[in-house]
Amino acid sequence: MMRNWLLPEAIDDVLPDEAARLEQLRRALLDRFAARGYRLVQPPLIEHLESLLTGSGRDLELQTFKVVDPLSGRLVGVRADTTPQVARIDAHLLNEAGATRLCYAGSVLRAVTDTPGATREVVQVGAELFGVPGIEGDREVIELLVSSLSATGLQELHVDLGHVGVYRALASGAGIAGGADESDLFEAMRTKDHPAVRELTRGLPGAWRDALEALPALYGPAGEVLAAARAALPDVPSIANALSTLDALAQAAGSRVAALHIDLADLRGYHYQNGAIFSVFIAGEPTALGNGGRYDGIGKAFGRARPATGFTLDLRQLADVLGRANPTPPTR
Question: Tens digit of pLDDT for each residue in 291-300?
Fold first, then answer.
């Protein structure tokens, strides 16, 4: 017989020692964001489903717990990611002119875990920048992410850059964007399954087929990948602009980290993000400590499309990594 005090699968309590570490780290990160002009917001845990999922794509819908609100009878969702909520606040509630910098910290709940053994209740800390387009905004949030992780005591940070616009341009040029044929190709590309990519692109026009086949191998040191990409990919404005953006970001971030790579087949957030994307790692840790990227226009459904970029951190993962690395305490 199941004891009634057992928690659901992949849900657990946070005990005093860990809770104290999480609170110290949360406070240090939020203070650092505040010092850079990022103001704290606290979106609600639940929202009407159509609002919660607006602009976020199918990926987030699959992660979202859905329940009926007994007061209204309407379907509501428990947030699985805070970023769309912050975009709603920027577009609908604040509606400010110029740049708006916001940050947040709180739990999100996911229907399934991201990785085996992980918790479904993730404590997210993040920062979002609205109203600053292109490279300028991307540089700011990458610098904030890297400097914030460095301030916790972590060293030898590695940054991976990508740009979902490259794959979008190739899928569009090949005439498969949004079609049934793209679904399998997307999955093969995401997992870098070279034989599957080759098979799935076999019937496409030559130049687009060759470019899509080349994409999974376009990963490595920034200079090498950019040179190989310019040689292998069609010379169209959208791809040229994406590569120029990555070149500028690599030059800006390269001096701040131990290693910087570009991965042109990184399609994380493909249905949600629409520009440069980035992740930060440390050696020995299989998953990224922080992820982010550009998601321009998400506020359109709330009445105001704006340039937007930002990042999130998993606070429990970060605290665990810091505990194992035993670095100096976080600084504000």
Answer: 999 999 888 8
